[in-house]
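Anyone? Bumping this.
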Amino acid sequence: MGKQTKKRISSNKSEALAAYCFLAPNFLGFLVFTSIPVIVSLVMSFTHWNIFRSPVWVGADNFRSLLWFHHEHGRLAANDPMFWKYLGNTLYLMIGIPIGMVGSLCLALMMNRKLKGIVIYRTVYFLPTVCSGVAMLILWKYLYNADIGLINKTLRAAGDMLYANPVSGWVFAPLRGFLTTPPDWLGTTAWAKPALILMGLWGGLGGVNTILYLAALQNVPSSYYEAADIDGAGPWAKFWSITWPMISPTTFFILIMSVIGGFQTGFMTANVLTNGGPAGSTTTIEYFLYQNAFEKFNMGYASAVAWFLFAVILLITLLTWKLGGKVVTYE
Amino acid sequence: MNRRRRAADIAIYTLLILGAVTMLVPFVWMAVTSIKQPDEVFAAGGGIKWLPNHFLWHDEVIQGRKVRAWWGNYPDAWNEINILRLYLNSIFIAVVGTFGQVLTSAMAAYAFARLRFPGRDKLFFAYLATMMIPGSVTMIPVFVIMKHFHWINSYASLIVPGLFSAYGTFMLRQFFMGLPTELEDAAKIDGSGHLGIWVRVILPLSKPALATLTTFTFMGFWGSYMWPLIVTITDPMRTLPIGLRYFVGQHATNYTQLMAGSMIALIPVLLLFIFNQRYFVEGIKLSGMGGK
């Protein structure tokens, strides 16, 4: 009996030892590149530091400059108005999220039928996702060019065609300015953000979300639809009473992930395509953070921005966790 | 009923085809631009010209003007940015980084899924918690660490911080948990140690999960942008996206050459995708299991 227990303990010990060996490389990396940096980042956010000199502890100064307000000529003014402007830009660009989700769902619904050549469609719609990156941004820079871009060439050609005919010219009269002298998409503050949203829709519509929706649609038991057929339900009723509730976990998942992602994007687009302009209209929080950290070397201030992002993401996650149970139908 | 179904099918086909054309047109425009003469792009007049003016296999002089062969922009772009070096850098970093990350993740995942040791659940919870932390929080301190290690502008700075992933560990751990234990028990009776079980039982059974994690990690390394931009200084250390970015900086409006460079950058990725489509799709589905 005693021998048995002893053996047991030693085998437990050897199992733990093996476990630590298996964990060691990952844990070391986890420590050096995640745990310690998180703590360092938090400490840094309470300092002024330009990496060339030693950091100076300034308490909550960075957060006060970033998030707080002061009185100016009897009015309340933000300490860092640019931060709020860029936060606004970031939120504005998120308009693309619900539009893209509706588009992805429609696409998945269309593809979820027994159609010929469905693999080809899926591949074609997925192409922009695979090719995402600098090469695609270069392509869009060219497409959006005010004079020689394909988009404005198409709009002008459409204008020429419509306004050559008096009837169609009268019908489309309100669009005359837009079609004959199309906007400088990336060069004007009014059009830059819509242009980026449009580009994002093209790039993401048939990508990851469509595949997630397709998988969700294929998991809806067909017996539910058969039962609805017996009840004489139309396609519309079937969608709202069966499909929509059954895929709600996927919708919920995509929404959270997109919003969390939405707070942390915009760097590459700004860096390659717009330089954050014109007049800062396409600068997002992520680009603002980069500029502070690696152009102005305000490491402390940039860390404060990062922690603001972290707080927002944490808040969204907790909120959706609480709220999600009420909205989402789980099987 | 049948006729209504057919009408619906036709409508759906039409919409799908229209959408597919919208997806493809920019790519086609890129391809045709890359084989045009440099000045053709700036031709006056609003009309859309799809086909290039000339399509020659060799440079020729036509009506006193030198006209380049259709492929002429490609060697220009290739030489201009030393694209071969960028490619080799990107491939090297992505291959080594992916292999390392999948390896460390699979090892840690085995410990979390199958071995008992004190503090396991607490440590796993810590891993889970860090998945929520945005990359921008750790980026600045990791950059400072790289500086202290004197790793800036080296392969080490491009690879090592990416060798460890809480997400990869989590994903593989979930997969390992779902594997049946019978084969492991049999291996134990045969006298296999933990290393033997991991190599001979767990890893072979987890091929689909490992393949999807590999695909995703590779894509992550391949497309990585901000980090390589921060830690590389000299041209020979740049990765493909960063090299392309500087190419745009230097040739703001030389669109024929820019399109040729972009084509060179895209073609291998496209081929890789077309032949490994299954893993992309499976990987995305797996990543979406959080919604279940």
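Late reply, but here is one note on the structure posted above: The longest strand of chain A covers residues 69-72.
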